[in-house]
Amino acid sequence: MNFKDRYAIVGIGYTPQGRFVDRTAMSFHVEASANAIMDAGLDRKDIDGLMCYRQFSPKPGEEEVTPYDVAERLGLTPTMLSQEANCARSHLHHALGALEAGLCKYVVLSYADTSLLGTNSAFQYYDDKAVFGQLATVGEYALAAQRAMHTQGTGPETWRKIAVSQRKWAHLNPAAIMHQRPMTDKDYDDAPYIVEPFRLPDCCLMNDGGRACVITSVERARDLKHPVVAITGLGQHNSSRDIQTSTIMDGPSGAKISGETAFRMAGIAKEDVDACQIYDCFTYTVELTLQDYGFFGPGEGKDWFDHGRIAPGGSLPVNTSGGLLSEGYFMGLTPLSEAVMQLMGRCGKRQLGPETGTRTPEIILCSDNGGVFQTHATAILRRL
Amino acid sequence: MNPLAASKPLPRINPDNQPFWDYCRRHELRFQKCLACGHTRFPASILCPRCYSREARWILSEGQGTVYTYAVYHKAFHPAYADELPYVTAVVALSEGPHLLTNIVGCLPKEVYCDMPVTLVWEDIDGSFSLPKFKPVRQDAR
Ligand SMILES: [Zn+2]
């Protein structure tokens, strides 16, 4: 099946993002989805598919969100409902499959959380690894990063460049949670270790909020109000190996095959990519993903990220909203929504092009990643 | 008994992992070895992921391996670990093949390195559980 330029993302829904003790995850799902539908210029009656990302464990007193409860609050009676468990990242494949099969015409994809750091997922490790004090996702990615330090000579010198560059993008994004919280190289070096080798700025944010988008056919997109942003390449590959048994933690991860698949569908080379929005749960994830996509060889990131390559004014901007590290955590919808907004030309001070001394984008490469490199999806978006 | 230590997570026994933890209580580190193709697997599973045979034998590990990778916790994500910081989690590659997530003990965190030879030591939690942990193999081992 070749979906090249057949489907488009036509609306993005934002919500307040940060820390909101008086809000439920449900309320963010509903707000983000409604905003995405209205942003596309659609009516609720148009929506016939609703897919929700993973629901992290709800905080005490809050019910677990299921797609039909979200649909009820949005006034929807969709043909298709789905929700992915844990960190499988097949949402776009499922959405496009449903559109291609004629099951749906307009699919909403939504994510929301009220994570309030430390109250839920960080504590809920129930597997046998928890008895050894392996209690947080950061600990598992730290194991992966340490292995890459050993085999490829990567380390904080590389990750610092990623964290600091993304923070510069966040400084141009008033909605970013770390907006006006500048970070120097020294700030990075002085930050405390969480799980060594990772310091606090190597770790993504955990925040309250929601994010959603609407996907439909390119034909229908042409009748809607925004410039058409098509999915021109799509790939997925899932190593499905727990950190305990993984031998791909220093690459090649699923990003390699997923990326090759997406580039092949798009019929482009990496030189054609104007910017990247890379799933950045940790700085090392950005390095390994770009490495597996072929932008540089194993361990060469140390030099590749030099000279502000991925920062404002750089030759290959990466994570231009600030990303999961500095804008906000909305799983794969942080990178995907930013790619769409950039290609639509709606990004204000951080807009790629003359405003930021970068190329005006036509093609943006996005990644999504789940587990500890257990799942990976790639989407290449193109402004038609 | 230290009340904090008592509140650490304990193994959650289910029909798949019960034999592993039962052997641990006897200070035996055992893994399933497929009788059809010889693949040694961990964690425990109903069948061999390579040939789908359900026939397996629990072989005894010699408890020798190397540190495949490790990490040093500087933050307690559970209050029971606050007194243990910094502590080392590691994936140990055992000579029989399986990788095991465990702890490196008996040395300082800064002394741990990838590919470091390590050997099994048992930590008895209480009457019901013993955890397989690893310490460095040293020339001057006591
Ligand atoms: Zn077998």
What does this structure look like?
The complex is a heterodimer of chains A (384) and B (142). With 384 residues, chain A is of the alpha/beta class. Chain A has helices spanning 25-39, 67-73, 91-100, 137-152, 156-171, 185-190, 218-222, 254-266, 283-292, 301-304, 323-326, 333-344; strands spanning 7-14, 49-52, 80-83, 107-114, 193-196, 198-199, 208-217, 229-237, 275-277, 363-370, 375-383. Chain A has a five-stranded mixed beta sheet with strand order 1-7-4-2-3, with helices on both faces. In chain A, strands 8-11-10-9 form a four-stranded mixed beta sheet. Chain A has a two-stranded antiparallel sheet with strand order 5-6. With 142 residues, chain B is mainly beta. Chain B has two domains: 12-60, no CATH class; 62-142, OB fold (Dihydrolipoamide Acetyltransferase, E2P). Chain B is built from two helices and eight strands, in the order ααββββββββ. Chain B has helices at residues 3-6, 18-25, and strands at 30-34, 40-41, 56-60, 64-73, 87-94, 99-103, 117-124, 130-136. A five-stranded antiparallel beta sheet of chain B has the order 6-5-4-7-8. In chain B, strands 2-1-3 form a three-stranded antiparallel beta sheet. Chain B is globular. Chain B starts with a helix and ends in a 6-residue tail after the last strand. The relative contact order of chain B is 0.19. Classes of the chains: A alpha/beta (384), B mainly beta (142). The A-B interface holds A 118, 122-123, 125-136, 139, 142-144, 146-147, 150-151, 192-197, 243-246, 249 and B 8-12, 17, 42-43, 68-75, 77-78, 81, 84, 86-87, 89-91, 98-103, 109, 113-115, 125, 129, 131, 133. The structure holds zinc ion. Zinc ion is lined by residues 34, 36-37, 39, 48, 50-51, 53 of chain B.
